Amino acid sequence: MPELPEIEIVKRSLFKMINKARIVDIKINNKDLRYKVSHTSLKKLINKKILRISRRSKYLIFHFKNKLLLVHLGMSGKFLVKRKKNIKNLLMDQTFVSGLGNIYVNETLFLSKIHPLRQCNNVENKSIKNIISNIKKILKISINRGGSSIKDFKNIYGTNGNFQDFFNVYGRENKNCSRISCNGKIKKISISNRSSFYCTNCQY
Ligand SMILES: [Zn+2]
Asked: What is the 184 CA–ligand 1 centroid distance (Å)?
């Protein structure tokens, strides 16, 4: 079940996508919902414009003229992926995940075994959960280390280590993948003018 930050992320990303959009059709994909969804009452939303999305605790509220739709995201943040954008750019989007800089987006994708150019709508729910938990993990590490900049890393680790030693993928162009079980090499590409490093073997 998604926790509050995920729901807030879903809310913001949905807002960017569908604000002021009109409902054209209603489709019920999952018949095993906790509460029975009435198709007839949902159909009343067809042609209505989404005016606003707000959040109350774990519920998302879609505001229509004279109507509200209450949504509880029972499972994963499934809405997240329905975007035609690559995952690297999505994670770099500050309004989407604030505070996750380029280095950590690289590291998150490496941990999640996701190729940075993978289209968001091709990322399975399982992988989204994985990405979210890796973001949390990485942000925690970054906070504990006092920042994400290369300079900060040097301050913390002193002269013994090169900052690159502390990353699994960032800055490791042409080196062997850090996964012991993988014999891939790290490749560097540029995505929206930012360096992107990934393993050609285990990230797809
Ligand atoms: Zn690899």
From this structure: 5
